[in-house]
Amino acid sequence: MAKILTIADAATWEVVQELLSGEGHELKVAPDGKDAFDLARDFFPDAIVCDGTSPQINWLEVCRLVKADRELATAYFVLVTTPEQFTGVEELDAPFDDFLFKPIAKQELLGRVRAGLRGRELRLELERTQEELQQSCDRMLQREKMSSLGELISGIAHDINNPITFIYSNLTHVQTYATDLIELLRLYQKQLVNPGAEILQKQQDMDVEFVLDDLLKIVNSMRTGSDRIRQIILSVQDFSRSDRSGWQLFDISDGLENTLLLLQHRLPAREGRRDIKVMKEYGNLPQVECYAGQLNQAFLNIINHAIDALEESSQELNESESIKFKPVILITTQVIDAQRISIEIADNGMAISEDITAQISDSFLMSKPGEHTSALELAVSYRIIVEQHKGELKCFSEPGKGTKFRIEIPLRHS
């Protein structure tokens, strides 16, 4: 049943208690306005019956304080008054929800309280439904954005992949041709014992020995660079793979490696921070049935958070401590049993904020503007892992030891 707070003198309280006690409600009483508001904040009543005729109760102040309080505003406020007093009450534009006249009639009080509580329940249910509807719309919008972004990135990567593949493939021939031409030039140098003045001058101007020595080094560097670009493009294509085809078998280790490759630019040393060392202890995992693109996004958000934590840790230290601090991210995967696997991503940075920890599983966080970016990214990861893949995401954080995220997901969903 409901919790009802009565703000009244002893005589009115006895009447209200007699009428409402038989309904099974939890009742409390406050003799004046100050005690009433303090009690309301501890009691969180569903309804408030306030005697506006009592001289020691400033009912208008109490009513406005209650309605201005975010947690108490939904309480159904019933004012007990007289016909003479009500004429003046109308002019105050007071925010009470209902009123009744003295002397209090039993059936009228019961009817007002029941109707008020039912109306409050329906209003709260409507608000919850609206929030859930807004949440569903935000989720659909977010999924559509991610899907469109994934298709865009995949298309760009495909367009870049064609020319870079052409360059990479032909560099093998360029290296072969350059080697052959250099060997031919060496033969000419051996056979041509007395070259003319023009040839000697050209050799001197271009520093032919340096060119011959550096040419193959340049070609090798170009091959290494183009191979790196190809790896990144393939990782981007794999990372942003479309989930429109539904569940698919996916290698978790490949997903983690592709994610790390995309975050490689954040790992080298920066001002005030040493290189971030990534240690990997991958188990022999079977392929997992999942939405690969979404799971990659969850990994990206969590590893990004770990990098942020390590950078913040370095900034908090003084110069000598920062030089000694060795930032590390440890990624461990293993099989739990025949149905589940685990992925742990740990860092030795600052402990995670309790506010962020509390918000990770906040189902309405996505629809709240201005939230902390890290909390938002972790909330997205929580949804992907827990809601989409029916897994678990747990956070263990301790000052001086860092933070560890433990992900558990089932192998199959059929």
Structure overview:
By secondary structure, the protein is α/β, with parallel strands linked by helices. Among the domains are: 102 residues, Response regulator (Rossmann fold, 3-Layer(aba) Sandwich); 170 residues, Heat Shock Protein 90 (2-Layer Sandwich), CATH 3.30.565.10. The chain is built from twelve helices and twelve strands. The protein has a five-stranded parallel beta sheet with strand order 2-1-3-4-5, with helices on both faces. It has a five-stranded mixed beta sheet with strand order 7-9-10-12-11. Strands 6-8 form a two-stranded antiparallel sheet. The longest helix has 86 residues. It is elongated. About 2% of the residues have low confidence.
